[in-house]
Automatic annotation (TrEMBL):
Compartments (UniProt record): Cytoplasm
GO CC, one annotated term: cytosolic small ribosomal subunit
Positions of the Sigma 54 modulation/S30EA ribosomal protein C-terminal domain: 131-183
Gene name linked to the record: raiA
Pfam families xrefs: Ribosom_S30AE_C (PF16321), Ribosomal_S30AE (PF02482)
HAMAP family, sorted: HPF
GO annotation terms (biological process): negative regulation of translational elongation
Domain of life: Bacteria
Quaternary context: Associates exclusively with 100S ribosomes, which are dimers of 70S ribosomes. Interacts with 100S ribosomes.
Keyword annotations from UniProtKB, A to Z: Cytoplasm, Translation regulation
Name listed for the protein in its UniProt record: Ribosome hibernation promoting factor
Organism, as annotated: Yoonia algicola
Length: 191
């Protein structure tokens, strides 16, 4: 497994890196089949340390957790506890997902854009319909079943997930509704 442990404007010592690798290996060995890479980023927000951990599994799923605390080790521990809880909750589904799938999840390339917020556009006197592109990035769209997409969205603590539906290869969206339920958008061509 490949690890990338870094700090945003703070130094990360070798002892912390070893602690992070040891703890993540222990958590992932209990629940996940074959993790491929882990990204852990430490930063400081006011008086608190923030730890953001993202682990990519060989099945294409991604686990993500964030922790905050006054101590840097405690911030990682809070993050790892959240990841442990997420993976424990989905342990059976992760194992079933791994057994059913002989190949890793297929990923398609896509463009991702950040648009200028509406408030900023209105201040300039620009028409808010023609928002300016602030940033362009590449992203990956996974090919999943609807159940896998919901599980991926919940594991990553994301409000929305765009995916390619394995059944008909169309682009779909799952999202967390205001009422707490999950919404699913499945556009169909009429014809």
């Amino acid at each position: 497994m490949r690890y990338q442990i870094s700090g945003k404007q703070i130094d990360i010592g070798a002892a912390l890196q070893t602690h992070v690798q040891t703890e993540l290996e222990e958590i992932l060995s209990k629940y996940a089949g074959r993790p491929t890479e882990a990204y852990v980023v430490f930063s400081k927000s006011g008086h608190e340390y923030v730890c953001e951990a993202v682990v990519h599994l060989s099945t294409g799923l991604t686990a993500q957790a964030t922790g905050k605390a006054n101590e840097i080790y405690a911030a990682f521990d809070a993050s790892s506890e959240k990841m442990d809880k997420q993976l424990r909750r989905y342990k059976r589904r992760l194992k079933d997902h791994h057994k059913e799938r002989s190949q890793p999840v297929e990923l398609s390339d896509a463009g991702s854009y950040i648009l200028e917020s509406r408030e900023e556009s209105d201040d300039d006197g620009q028409d808010s319909v023609n928002a300016m592109i602030v940033a362009e990035m590449e992203t990956k769209i996974p090919s999943l079943s609807v159940g896998e997409a919901v599980m991926q969205m919940e594991i990553a603590s994301a409000p929305v997930l765009v995916f390619r539906n394995e059944k008909h290869n169309g682009v779909n969206v799952v999202y967390r509704r205001d009422d707490g339920n999950i919404g699913w958008i499945d556009p169909r061509s009429s014809g």
